[in-house]
Amino acid sequence: QSKFPKQYPATLDTWADPVETDDKEMAILRPFLKNTNLETRGLKLTYDANRDGWDPVKFHEKVDKLGGGIVYCTTRAGIQCGGYNPKGVSVFILFCALRH
User: Fold this and answer.
1) How does pLDDT run across 39-59, given as a tens digit for each residue?
2) What percent of the residues of the chain are helix, what percent strand, and what percent coil, each to the nearest 5?
C-alpha cells in the first residue's frame, strides 16, 4: 500500500495527518488525501484563476506535466468542491478527451 497508494480506494474512516509545510488552506485539504500519492508530500498552489486568469491556456501552462494534483474551488453559491487526479494534467489528455 505504501508503494502504490493511489491504487487503493478513498477511505471514509481514516484521514491523512498534517504535513509540516501545510498552510491554512492545505491543512483543510490534507485529510482527504489519505491513501493517495500526495498523502505526505508538500502541496503548493500552482494555479489560481483569480490570480492567474480564467484562461485554459494559462491553466495548462501552470499545471501540465507536474504529476498528481488536486482541484479545489468554491462556487458563487459558496459550495466547496474538488477532485484528485493521481496522474496529473497534460495537453494530450485534454486533446484526447476533446476528440471523443
Assistant:
1) 999 998 999 999 999 888 898
2) 35, 15, 50
* Other C-beta atoms lying within 10 Å of the C-beta of residue 8: 11
**Helix or strand or coil: residue 19?**
coil
Overall size of the chain counted in residues: 100
Element (H, E) at 48: none
pTM summary value: 0.71
Q: How many CA atoms lie within 13 A of 46 on its CB side?
A: 19
CB 28 within 8 A of CB 19: no
Instruction: Give the residue, 67 or 98, on which the prediction is more confident.
Output: 67
Grid cell locating 46: 500552482
Task: Check residue 5 and report its DSSP letter.
Answer: G
